[in-house]
Design a protein that fits this description.
Order of helices and strands: HHEEEEEEEEEE
Low-confidence stretches: 157-161
Organism: Azospirillum oleiclasticum
CATH topology: Lipocalin
Number of domains: 1
Strand content: over 45%
CATH architecture: Beta Barrel
Number of helices: 2
Strand order of the largest sheet: 1-2-3-4-5-6-7-8-9-10
Number of strands: 10
Largest sheet: 10 strands, antiparallel, barrel
Shape: globular
Mean pLDDT: 92
Protein name: DUF3833 family protein
Radius of gyration: 15 Å
Length: 161
């Protein structure tokens, strides 16, 4: 498969160990820009588990936080858990491409919607990690998230395995 040969190889536990910043936006299913955001991520790899704390800032002033626990398994498979993720997020890395899917309880105005995400992350040679995620509810596409991640240099928190 072509994806498996794409470089640079993506290892989530390496890319997200330390500080990372993300810039992104959400477009509805008609292509209308609805929201922009910045996420500061703090990752810690202990040789077995990647702990990832995300702090969100939206263009409308809202803030949020999500804490992930991500486990690398055999053959490039990863499992992730977070408080607003329903069950387990599961995905697989092939070369520089990571795809994972999960359900999430998302606050929408005064209610909570259960939505599904289909995320594709691609590591580019310059160290930028691009993310394109499609969001749906009851099988109907609600919109998409486009984002770019870049490591904040000099602040790695990896522990030698």
């Amino acid at each position: 498969m072509r994806e498996a040969a794409m470089t640079p190889a993506l290892r989530l536990e390496e890319f997200f160990a330390g500080r990372t910043r993300c810039w992104g936006l959400f477009e509805d299913r008609f292509g209308t820009l609805r929201r922009q955001f910045v996420i500061d991520l703090d990752g810690r790899w202990d040789g077995r588990v990647l702990s990832l704390a995300e702090s969100f800032r939206y263009d409308d002033g809202e803030t949020g936080r999500r804490d992930w626990t991500i486990l690398p398994l055999a053959d490039g498979v990863y499992e992730g858990r977070a408080t607003d993720v329903v069950g387990v997020a599961r995905g697989r890395v092939m070369g520089n491409h990571f795809r994972w899917r999960y359900a999430m309880d998302l606050k929408v105005r005064s209610s909570v919607w259960r939505v599904r995400f289909d995320d594709h992350l691609i590591l580019l040679p310059d160290g930028v990690l691009l993310n394109r995620a499609h969001m749906s509810r009851w099988g109907v596409t609600l919109g998409s998230v486009s984002a770019a991640f870049r490591r904040v240099e000099g602040e790695t928190q990896a522990i030698a395995a």
